[in-house]
Write a structure and sequence with these properties.
Number of strands: 20
CATH class of the largest domain: Alpha Beta
Largest sheet: 5 strands, parallel
CATH superfamily of the largest domain: Glycogen Phosphorylase B
Radius of gyration: 27 Å
Strand order of the largest sheet: 15-14-16-17-19
CATH topology of the largest domain: Rossmann fold
Helix content: 25-40%
Strand content: 15-25%
Structural class: alpha/beta
Distance between the termini: 68 Å
Number of domains: 4
């Protein structure tokens, strides 16, 4: 009987898939997305496994917010809440976010360790108190606080945010009411002063921008643009994009053999001009990793914007494509950003981390090979391995290749090593955010935020030749509390300087201050094409003003 039942079940499955094969692939995907096919398949599988059909539901129909886990912690309605995703409609980053610091229900004291991501639930309602279906994610920062991020795919005349605990008690000052909330695709640029207020740009500006632009006097675009294009077009393998922002419209023309990285600068600049009214400006962006302007001390140096700077070059530094992509595409093409990176932090996890330094990467610099040799000699202090060989293939047999590991697994170790690749290692922001103490190699290369960092406060310095690396690791092991403090400081640095608002502020202030140096007008030059904005219907509220932070 069991064999006959199994045979009939298999035949039913075959018939089902034959029926589905008659549909187009597009229809099939739509049905799966709607849950109908999943429910039908689940029903058949339930029969095969002798499970009642009604216990199997399509994933999208499950409402976890209404069925909290029994182990969830009850946090107090008096828990503290703050962040731009609660209080500023005009802080329209692609992904909005806010924070909750949990307060204990019984004692009224702040949590200092993990309250659990399932200790809160969030409702997003429109002006009629109808659920909007806004997708959100909660991250436990393991220091007593939670981060909530959400992304809007349309605009709302009013958005009401209610945060509740597992007993459905409203938390903080819920509901938080935002009027005239624009989606990421809305072309609603705000005046610069209003933008700086909404995005909480630093009043003092950015030291790196001041240093970079101080190297240049007045800029004559009629002279510098043709000269820059001519000079770098002759450079071997140089790739760059020529941009103009005119009346907040973005125009571009690319030069060079490999211009794929243009997609990163296009995406972020398009997003920027949707948010802030910029002065007309024209500039050249280096699409490679290496800085380009070698004539640091020459009066004839040319203004080139690059993702990485060097003490030996005169390039004007911007936030890297790695950070900007995480900012623009979070909860879309990218799921690791500054918010999610803080979900594995120091306070709750430190004692469970392995007391050794960790590194993985490819063979893009000799010191990386030296690091692997050190690890083979001192495996109790250091776990380092090469995941790919390109520059030093002849040494693969000696050093070996190790499997890839997820970036989250890095933080199972107390100490992380930040080692240059071809230029600065763009993983540095994520290492700082992850809750381990970072050992940073001395380097002539830098990113836009390095001037705000302090050795022995945010990271432990290591000589360029790694000759003191083992000594520094041993120091961290012998000074446990100081190591934890450095890890905490690194995390706090990312919260203060590398969140989405900070990235937009840096770009906006950089281009505005560069525009002040132009002595000839920016223009749309021959061959430039307008970078199209996404289609959207938005009712921009010119009179809206940011609410004060609660």
């Amino acid at each position: 009987m069991l064999f006959l039942f199994s045979f009939l079940s298999v035949m039913l499955l075959i018939a089902l898939f034959r029926m589905l094969s008659l549909r187009s692939g597009r229809c099939f995907r739509r049905k799966v997305a709607n849950g109908e096919t999943l429910l039908l398949l689940a029903s058949v599988l339930a029969v095969c496994r002798f499970v009642p059909v009604e216990t199997v539901q399509p994933e999208e129909n499950v409402e976890p917010a209404d069925t909290p886990a029994s182990e969830s912690i009850i946090i107090s309605p008096q828990s503290h809440m703050w962040g731009p995703g609660l209080t500023s409609a005009r802080s329209n980053t692609p992904v909005r976010y806010f924070f909750v610091h949990a307060v204990q229900q019984t004692t009224g004291e702040n949590f200092t360790a993990s309250p659990g991501a399932k200790s809160i639930f969030v409702d997003f309602l429109d002006g009629t108190d109808t659920h909007t279906g806004v997708h959100y994610e909660v991250f436990d920062r393991r220091d007593g606080s939670l981060a909530v991020r959400y992304r809007l795919y349309r605009s709302y005349k009013q958005l009401r945010i209610v945060v509740r605990n597992v007993e459905n008690e409203w938390i903080g000052s819920s509901p938080y009411i935002l009027d005239s909330v624009e989606s990421e695709n809305c072309f609603c640029p705000a005046p610069l002063d209003a933008f700086k207020m909404s995005f909480r740009c630093p009043l003092e500006g950015y030291e790196q921008i001041k240093v970079d632009l101080s190297r240049f006097g007045d800029v004559n675009l009629t002279q510098t643009i043709p000269e820059t294009i001519s000079r770098f077009s002759d450079a071997r393998g140089a790739c760059f994009a020529h941009y103009s922002i005119i009346n907040n419209k973005l125009y571009a023309k690319v030069h060079g053999p490999h211009t794929g990285f243009r997609m990163f600068s296009d995406a972020f600049l398009s997003s920027l001009v949707r948010k802030v009214k910029l002065a007309d400006v024209e500039f050249i962006v280096n699409l490679g990793d290496y800085p380009q302007e070698k004539r640091l001390h020459s009066a004839d140096k040319l203004p080139v914007f690059s993702w990485c700077g060097s003490t030996e070059y005169a390039d004007i530094v911007m936030p890297t494509y790695d950070v900007t992509q995480a900012t623009v595409d979070s909860m879309s093409r990218v799921h690791v950003d500054m918010i999610s990176s803080q979900s594995r932090l120091e306070t709750g996890d430190w004692e469970r981390k392995l007391p050794k330094a960790f590194w993985r990467g490819r063979d893009s610099r000799q010191e990386r090979l030296d690091l692997v040799r050190l690890a083979k000699q001192q495996p109790d202090l250091l776990d380092a391995g090469l995941t790919n060989f390109f520059f030093f293939r002849e040494q693969e047999e000696e050093l070996g290749r190790v499997p890839y590991v997820s970036f989250q697994e890095f933080f199972n170790h107390k100490y992380q090593i930040n080692l240059d690749g071809t230029v600065a290692a763009y993983r540095f922001p994520w290492l700082l955010a992850g809750g381990s103490a970072v050992l940073k190699q001395d380097s002539p290369y830098y990113e836009h935020f390095y001037k705000h960092l302090e050795a022995w406060t945010h990271y432990v310095p290591v000589k360029r030749d790694l000759s003191d690396l083992l000594k520094q690791i041993q120091w961290l092991k012998e000074n446990e509390e100081k190591a934890k403090e450095i890890a905490r400081n690194g995390v706090q640095f990312t919260r203060d300087h590398l969140m989405p608002e900070s990235i937009y502020c840096y770009y906006a202030l950089l281009f505005q201050q560069y525009a002040d140096k132009l002595r000839t007008p920016a223009t749309v030059r021959d061959g430039m094409v307008e970078v199209e904005q996404p289609k959207s219907t938005c009712d921009c509220n010119e009179n809206s003003s940011p609410r004060d932070e609660l």
